[in-house]
Write a structure and sequence with these properties.
heterodimer; A: alpha+beta; Periplasmic binding protein-like II; MetI-like fold; 3 domains; nine-stranded antiparallel β-sheet; four-stranded antiparallel β-sheet; 15 strands; 53% helix; elongated; B: mainly alpha; 16 helices; 0% strand; flat; disordered C terminus; MetI-like (chain B); membrane (chain B); transmembrane helix (chain B); sugar transport (chain B)
Amino acid sequence: MTINQDDAVRPARAAEPRQPREPREPRESHARSWKGPGGGFLVKLLLMMLVNAIGLAAILTAYRAQSWVILGVMVVLLLVADWIYFSKRAVPMKYLYPGLIFLAVFQVFTLFYTGYVAFTNYGTGHLGSQQQAVDAAMIQNEQRVEDSPSYPLAVVRDGDELGFAITDADGVVSVGTLDTPLEEVGGVVVNEGGTPVEVPGWEVVPRADLFSDADLQAQVTSLRVPVSDDADDGSIRTREGSTGTVYLSTLEWDAAAETLTDTATGVTYSPDGRGSFVSPDGDRLAAGWYVGVGFENFQRAFTDSAYAGPLLQVALWTFAFAGLSVLTAFGLGLLFALIYNDERLRGRKIIRTVFILPYAFPAFMSALLWRGMLNSEFGVINDWFFLGANIGWLSDPLLAKIAVLWVNLWLSYPYWLLVTTGALQALPGDVAEAARIDGAGRWRQFRSITLPLLMVSTAPLAIASFAFNFNNFTIIFMLTGGGPTFPGASVPLGSTDILISAIYQISGVAGGRADYGLASALSIVVFIVIGVVSALAFRQTRKLEEI
Amino acid sequence: MTSPSSTVPASAASATPTAPRRGMSDDERRAGRRRRWWKEVGWKYPLAAIIVFYAAFPLVYALSAALSSRGSLAGSSSLFSDLSTVNFEALSGTMYWTWVVNTLVVCGASAIGAVAMGGAAAYAFSRFRFRGRRASLTSLLIIQMFPQTVAFVAVFLLLIALGEVVPELGVNSKLALICVYLGGALGANTFLMYGYFNTIPIEIDEAARIDGASHAQVFWRLIIPLVVPILAVVGLLAFISAFGDFILARIVLTSEDNWTLAVGMYQWVSNQLTSRWGLFAAGSMIAALPVLALFLSLQRYIVGGLSAGSVKG
């Protein structure tokens, strides 16, 4: 965004009456003045020092981690920040910049990244880049080298992090952990066998602990400490916790030909174009990387026999759930508003306060509360209203849908009660009076006068509420978890799953098989629906014209 | 509340004037009035009782379960059969209070951040005319329609990547979750605040500027004190929305001592619904009461904020 300096420093709609001024020294901006009132400049200087310190530290770690994209973004962000806050020109940006950074990184970027992931096969078996896949494959195929030297080894610990300290043939001691390769350390005390007994910065784990603690033992025997950053150099492992030996991968990476060759069997694995290494026999290595797959994820969602059927049901239910939720809550809220917006009633305030109690109760707790109340065995609903019958409110597909709608109605009718009460009170009284004089009955008045006038102010809210319920993950996940699951389906979806909870199940972010590609593709579908709904809302409110 | 009072409210009588008929005794007239009162107003009281029951009984039931000495769902149907604080005491044997602190930290920080960044942005949009202003407002309006929660997969992957560089911004960090919430702050709140900022007369700024005030002084000394009501509303809405968020908190915070209430209490109930019912009820009472009190006392402002665009429930 380029900023017109002349406009920028001038307040809005300033008519700028150029008053005759005495000639004087050009005043220095407050932003650079040391003696500005209140020491604002000093505060700014301190804040910017802090920002720069944190930024530089982050840039250094990004450099060490070799994340060039993050490094580049951070450098740009920091330079722009410094320019904005020490320049006289970018006044509006001084106020917008912090918010814009968060917006750009955590919302705009994630939206576009969703779009990118939707066209890849990112997920279990296809994580990270090709280089990461190669490293992972080599690590998985590491074996002890036949005549490898063994080094005296001590297990060291720093908090929860375990590492190895080894002494090589020259008596040099190096320490490394799972994530950091071996690095030489000084000031180590070794015993006569060459085993390190005191390592600065680390606590040496006594041998006795290893024997007594089976958990620790398992951790130590599965720990691999890379010899260097290069996976080709192999790693140090130990079987008993006192000597370390070098393990090397049986796979050999040929960067030019992009093939992995197993030196033990002579089999060559080459990329198959879909992010996996495959041997001529069709054997696939577990580690893969992600590649673009075009519209395959979308195609899978609509045509794959495992997904298409359940997803269609889920999509239909999502529309039904969102639509019915708005309709029922709006209807009930409006009905209550019409009945209790009556000046002749006493205690209206108290009545209304109790009416909106469900809305003030946090939604996720309400959903969990109802989950218990609707329990078929011990639930209070069955106990009180159905003579203790074991009705499976949350386990029968149809009843579960009714239960979800019922609970959502309980949660959200107060919102509409509040909104419609406000809208009713704002309605002009003369129109209704004219209709009454013309002989319109109550129903006629409501249908032809009140409702149309009410819709003007509440329709945009109804559309927003539809969009909200379309993604109302909390109530579905808390109340039914999407269940009961579709009988016979191979995907973990159920009758009350809506699209967002289906995406959650498929994505595998909470464990299980991950399929980020398909999940993102479905997110895109949701975005399209929301986009269309919002476009409708725009036409209703014409908000854009008000800007 | 349900027993009809014998006196007819004056407004009811005057609203429907009746010509006195001949041969009608006082008693008959009174009976006629009462009938009409019942038809017009009286029936609303018994109906209100039913609705009050509908609205409040789950909450009363939860209160009863919290105060019961029994900790399980079984047998919780008889209300207030015994009163004890066993469940409340048992909370200290769990991670509950850790989660409360986590929730307060995360929600408080995101509320403060949302107010600060939203307020600053609204000031810029309302008080400065700069190139790209209209386009920024329009794109903000469009971006805010696409909720972050739907892009949670990308949020998750982004945090994994960030965590490799800055562990404080990676998965399982509260700071990362706060940042994610702040990412949605500008879109959700700027318009609400922008509208309010526009109602503050520009002449106030102009007068201050002629007196030599800088833009920062106008912002901190003049505008902020005048917009405190909207700051409070936005802060409260941001707090409540962070409090109620489950999906982002769940994927970001992986270890139990980092969980917020939503994640932790879900875990209680989803694993062992029946045996931890008392704990859940007691925990939800403690957590909900402040929210309930805050909400009911600030009802008026919140409703204004709600109808201005943001929706809960």
